[in-house]
Amino acid sequence: MKKKSVIAVLLTALVAAGGLLYFAHAHTLEKATAPAPPPAVPVVAGVVAQHDVPIYLSGVGTVIAYNTDIVRAQIQGQIVSINFTEGQTVHAGDLLAQIDPRPYQALIDQYTGNLERDQAQMINAQANLTRYTTLGEKGWATPQLLETQKAQVGQLQAAIKADQALIDAANVQLSFTRLTSPIDGVAGIRQIDVGNIISPSNTNGLVVVTQLDPISLIFTLPETVLPQIQQQQQQTKAPLAVLAYTQDNATLLDQGVLGLVNNEILQTTGSIQLKANFANKSRRLWPGQLVNARLLVDTRHNGLTIPAGAVQQGPTGPYVYAVNTDNTVAIRQVKVAQISDGQALIDSGLQANEQVVLDGQYKLQPGVHVAMLHGKAAQEEAAQDALQAPIP
To answer: How would DSSP label each residue in 240-263?
Structure first.
């Protein structure tokens, strides 16, 4: 009986030891098979900057010449010389073409001869009037003879004035044989060749001269911004700055000033027209060119900016991935005031010196750990993200 009890105790001990070994082994297996924490997601991050930010109103405009003149003939004649080349810079008064002056010079010679003839007759008539006056005082000449001689002198004086007027008019006509530039500018395409007859009826004229510096830009903005512009004009008491950019906003062409706001609103489009003037010394603005205009209306002091690529669009509006102190990310709703030159001006949602994700947002979820890349690695990551990011 005692032997059976000993055997039972031994069996119980073996079972207990086996159970302990089993649970210890199971716990070891569980620890061995537990999943490792996911690796940190590599991203490119940037810091929220704080500085003065200019506020622009953007619109599309067309460059127009400050002055444009069609050089036309005021008389008819044959062109004997062309004195400019197409595309040449010309100045006011420069000779552009010469009309045959000989017919008009001949008229001047004729009228000059008539003047000299009448002047000679006038001298003789004046001498006769002097003699007749002396004879009349002695009673040897009748009053009728004196009156006749005075009338002849007056007639010749009038003839001399008429001759001089004809000479002046012919000189004016002769000056019209010189086709000159009325303004400083650039000559366009020549419309007529040497040897052809030109006249005032030629609508195309000789050439178009266009003034390029200074130059103007007409652009439009929504009528809702008119009070803002007027308020800024009253505050600054000076012309507002206007920047002209290429259509892709990549290149600044020139900087000018606002000349005027048109005196009416375009009812069909609900917009206002504005005219800006530019010095255009480098001639990067060209008549007829379509450009993007930016009107500087304010400067936001201590404004917060981030690269525009950090801003994402979601169902509730724009947001960014902000990097927490423990290198996890969180979605932060933001309000964007403007995007200019690749920088987004933030009204609310961020603080200065916070870090936000610039590239790699499509791989993120709230709470994910991130590893921030720098330098060449950041450039490579940005390039890879550009290729792999989903098309919106």
So the answer is: PEEEEE-TTS--EEEEEEEEEEEE
Residue in 65, 60, 53 with CA at minimum distance from that of residue 244: 60
* Helical segments of the chain, H only: 2-33, 102-138, 143-175, 226-236, 375-388
User: Among 76, 82, 78, which residue's Cα sits nearest to residue 97?
Assistant: 82
User: What is the rounded end-to-end Cα distance, in angstroms, of the chain?
Assistant: 85
Q: Strands 335-340 and 343-348: what pairing? A: antiparallel
Please tell me the pTM assigned to this model: 0.69
Shortest CA distance to 242 belongs to which of 227, 229, 231?
Answer: 229
Dihedral sign for Cα 297, 298, 299, 303, please: negative
Lowest mean pLDDT segment, chosen from 137-146, 203-212, 275-284: 137-146
| pLDDT for 38 | 72
- Burial category of 304 from C-beta neighbours within 10 Å (exposed 0-12, middle 13-18, buried 19 and up): buried
Peptide bond into 390 cis (omega under 30): no
Determine the Cα–Cα distance for residues 44 and 375; give it in Å rounded to an integer.
10
**Percentage of the chain modeled with pLDDT above 70:** 86
- The 10s digit of each residue's pLDDT in 285-327 is 999 999 999 999 988 899 999 999 899 998 999 999 999 989 8
| Residue 273 to residue 119: CA distance in whole angstroms | 63
Say if strands 49-71 and 207-222 run parallel, antiparallel, or are unpaired. Answer: antiparallel
Label residue 134 by pLDDT band (50, 70, 90).
Answer: confident
Distance CA(245)–CA(155), nearest Å, equals: 71
Return d(Cα 192, Cα 73) in angstroms, integer: 11
Q: What angle do CA 262, 274, 89 make, to 5 degrees?
A: 115
Report how far residue 55's alpha carbon sits from residue 72's, in angstroms, rounded to the nearest whole number.
47
Question: Helix 102-138 crosses helix 143-175 at what angle (to 10 degrees)?
Answer: 160
Closest CA to 114 of 165, 63, 71, 50: 165
CB 370 within 8 A of CB 40: yes
Are the C-beta atoms of 83 and 228 separated by less than 8 Å? Answer: no
